Amino acid sequence: MSTAKIAVVQIPGVNCEYETTRALASVGLSARIVRWNEPASVWSEFDGYVIPGGFAFQDRVRAGAIAAKLPAVDRIAAEAESGKPVLGICNGAQLLVEAGLVPGFHQGRVEMALAPNAAPRRAGYLCRWVWLRASPGPGSPWYADSVPPDEVIPMPIAHGEGRFLTADPEVRERIQKEGLVLYRYVAPGGERADRYPFDPNGAMLEAAGITNQAGNILAFMPHPERASWLRQVPLELKNVWGQRRRDAVGRWDALEGPGPGRILFQSLAKRLRLHAAQEARP
Amino acid sequence: MSAVLLVRLKITDLSAWTALTTGRRLVAPGYSLNRIAREQLLLFTPEPGIKAESFERALGEAVRHSNFFVNPNKESYRLLTSAERGESWTPPEGAWGILSRPREDTRDERLRESLLREHPMPGLLAIRRAKVWWLWTRGPDGTPATAYFSGALGELRDQKHGLLVNPHAEAALILTGALAWSRVERFLTDPAPAFRAAA
Question: Whole-prediction pTM value?
C-alpha cells in the first residue's frame, strides 16, 4: 500500500508550510509543499490538501479573500468534490470560508465569514493556548477519529479574524443540526466556553472548526502543527498535557513525543490508509 | 450633526492595489476597472441635545497632534466638522463608492475611552467606524456601469462574484452620487439591514 500524498499549499504570505509538512510526515503521510501557481495537472496527483496558516497576500481586503480567488483553489475544490480531504488551518480556514467551500450547503455560495475577534472588551490579534473538544459529525472520521471520548485538547491559536459568523439564520441552524461544528472551544474541564478566555473570539456555536456536509473539508482556526510535539506544549498548562510536558523536562526522547495537535493529523492519516486499503481491494 | 474624519494611506495602499488587480480578473470583457481607493471613515456623534461644535476643537487638536487617528508619515486625512461638511457627501470626481460597516454595532468604545482619557471632549457620545471603497469604472456603453460592478466586486456571493464586502460580517451602501450625510449617519447608527441570501 502506497503512502498517501498530501499537498501543502504554498500561497504568497502563508508562513506555516514547513512545520505543517513536518507534522504530516510525523504521522506517516508523504507531504510536499506545492506552490499556488503550479500547472493545473499537478493538483490531481495528491490524495489530500492542507492549506496552512499565515497571511496569504498579507490579508489584503480581508483574510483569505484574495487567495480564495486563485485558480489553484478551483482545482482543489474539484478534487474535494471527489471526496479528497482538504484541511484549512487558520488562514487556510479563512480561505475555505471565503471560497464558499465550508459549510457548502449551496455549492460555491459563500455562507459564512471569519470576522474580527470580538470577545467582550477584547479585540484584535490574539495568540494563546485554548481548549477544544470534538463533537460527533460528518467530519469525525476524517479529523477526529483518533480523539479519545471526552478528551479536552489544548492547542494554540494565533489570529485576528477567527470568529465564525453567518448572517443567515438558516445556515446557522443547519450547521448546528447537521453536526458540522467538529471542534468547539471549551473550558479546561470540558464545560461550555461561555466567556473569555475559554471562548477566545466570540465565534458562533463556540466553533473552532467547521466542516462541509461530507466532512472531508475542515476549516480549523487553531494550529495543530504548532502542538504536534510534546516540546511545543507550555510547561504551565494545567492538564494532563502540561503534566506530560513537565515530566519530560530533561528527557530529549520524551520531548520529541507526540503533542496534542498530532491527534488531528493521526485521524487524517488513519482515514487515508483505510481509504487506500478499500481502494486496493480486488 | 456629527463630525466626520476620513483617513487614507498616502503611501501605496496595497489592499486597494490588490483589490484592483483581483477585481480586473473578475469582470467581463468590455468592462474596465481603472482605479480603486480606500478610506477609513470615523463618525463622531454628539450626545443628544449637544452640538458637535462642543468637542470639534479638541477633536481637531487630537487628530493633528496625537496618534489616535492618523499617522502623518503614512496617512492623509480630511476632518469634516459639522459646519464644514455640507448637506451631502459627494464621491471623488469620476468615482462611485461602496461604504461598508460591520453588521454589528459600529461603535468603537475602546477608542472613545482611550481618547477621552487623554483629550476630554465634552458631549462626545460615540465614535463609529466604516470603510469606503472608491471605484473608477467604465462599462461597454461608456457609463460607470455601477450596477454591474457592484455585483461583480461588491458583496461576496461565491468564488467568482463579489470581493470587497463579506455580507455575513458587513453591510454595504452604494454611493453613486451625492448622498445626504443624514443617510450616511443612519446607515452607521441604525441596525444593519437584514441579510438577504443570494438567489
Answer: 0.95
